[in-house]
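ENTRY TYPE: paired fold submission
RECORD: A
CONTENT: sequence, then structure tokens
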Amino acid sequence: MSLTLTSNLPGSIKSSGNGVASHNSSAGGVGSSQVLSRPGRIAVIGAGGLVGARLLRVLHQDDQREGVGIVRSARSLARLSDLEIRLADTSRVANLTEALSGCDTVVNAINGDVSRILEETRVVYEAALAAHCRLLVHLSSAVVYGRVPSQDIADDSPPDTRNWMLYARGKARGEIFLRRQMKLHPEFRMVVLRPGLVWGPCSHWSGMVGEELARGRVCLSNGGRSIANLVYVDNLVRMILAVHRKQGGPSGFYNVADPLRVSWMEYYRGLGGKLGYAPDQVCAWPDGRLPFQPRLAVEWGLQRKPLYCFSRWLLPRMGLGMKAKIKKLIQGGPQPPERASSGNCLPSGPPRLNREVWSLQNQFFPLPAEKFMRDYGPVALMPLEETLAATAAWLRFAGFSAAGPFDQSNLW
């Protein structure tokens, strides 16, 4: 028996018997099973995350394209209350197929349980095929190549399925699955994008910089020389929309990045300068040593699937104080640098980073990103100065400024 909750008021939610619910901000909104197919309609799976929410917001402001957000939990509805949102179980093909009704493009921006990446990739693919969608844009990650040990790695190079990170292994196996499906179903267009670190307002990778600067705890590994494989969130959104616009574009795998590659030192000092911090507040240790710490062993253990799944089961059952202690043990942070009386930064030893951040700050080579522009360009990407200004405005709003009162002129 189906259960339907309806209302003539804006923001009504409708639920069908198989568990799909639709939230529409317009009066008289209809459930997903009743929506007629519209050319160019884009379903964003994982609309509660950084990339999904930003893409949906951009589509909401676009008169030419429509966006439909798909989320797993009602808690994601608050920040998206003025948009069309559908609740769906991304582990069930039939459930997700109904949620995709009326859409011709699917963007898979799920960012959840890293132990289920392959399974969710398979469900999204099968649901998109069953819903007769024309295009699937899957967001993978540059982490599938680890520290990029060779400059010969290209867009079509096989991913590393033996990476130490569970997330990277899941993304790699998801790519292998989709590559196989591209050969079996060449008529269904699939584009896999590999962004590096997605930065900008609301991003962890930008909030991390502001927090470390505010605490005076910045010390980079390897002299800060390694390339920070960054892509600004709005630039990634523009590349996703470029794939959607080009109807005859090819299926394939694409590394995507910002137009100007910067080092970790340039990234930290660029944001720090916008926030009012002096350049010498960002220090660097000259080599890539990683001192042993017990938490590195804990971090490594949690990248084994059984221990990770057990920790996900255990954490909701623990008190807030214990959660905070465990999080601090695992994540840690760079140690405060020592400063001479002249103000120069003199770290007493290599930074005590967690292994993930250390790996990122010791990447060997940048990934090539020219193939995307050849197949789907030109795309007008935001320049570095503009992206730094917008991100710094958000960081000031969050309280990480050394330069005075908050100015909201550069916020989205």
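RECORD: B
CONTENT: sequence, then structure tokens
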Amino acid sequence: MQPEPWTTRRTALAGPPRMVLCFARMADVTTDPGIFAASSASSEDARWRVVARNVFPFIVVFGLWEIVARSGIFPPRLFPSLVTVAKTFVDLTISGILIHHTFDTVLRLLVGFFLAAAVGVALGILMGRSRRAEDIALPLVSIAAPIPGLAYAPLFLLWFGLGNKSTVLLVAFVSAFPIIFNTWTGVKAVKEVWVRSAQAMGADDRRLFAKVILPGSLPYILTGLRLGLAQAWRILVGIEMLAAVPWGLGWMIFGAREFLNTDVMLSGVVVIGVLGLALEKLVFEKIERYTVMRWGMMT
């Protein structure tokens, strides 16, 4: 005789009898392969939809560019086709010229941006936590920030001379302003109830900063770093030509303009765009994923 799928058993304990329901599933648990196949197929479809949604704008822009390039509205030397740009990009990469320009530009960018990030975050936090520091620094930052970065270039060239020093310092100076503003805003935006709750539980200043102030202001700090990086790119491309540095994407782009080499200019622009996208995906998004998104502060 086969046992029932579910059995009920009475057990006697000391004292009044108690009914104990012991459920024992006698049949083996089976899995349907079709369920897993359908789930895998749906996740694969969702992944392809995301890829298609991201690629579609580029297909549209590239298609319109190619139509205009082949229509003859502009001379081919001023408006080259994508095939010409791709060929020039490959030739410059194989020869090592584009790699050399890119390496020098990235090195200047990273050094200047790291200086801006260190000074900007520190000053922004100090302004947010100290009323005296805010009263002293905020008017100066508010006056200097709206001035275009290239307006400072002649001063830095006179003070620090031609070359990498003036380039790096100008990049750091200009890109620090959005970092300062956003860090200061983030510190001021931390809810007072969080601070008072931490102080009521005995948190000292160091733990209050590490556990409340910094996590609460981190979304604003990351936004400031993004804006500062974009500002650093813009000023770096311009100052590389003015500072008479021998290598760099800005120098390459402006030098190609003198000879109407639009394909070389576009190759440099493509590299700048790819580097910016790589920094966004590989640095900022990973920082967000392991900090503010993990803490539930962003979705």
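NOTES ON RECORD B: Residues 45-74 form one domain. The two ends are 57 Å apart (CA to CA).
STATUS: closed
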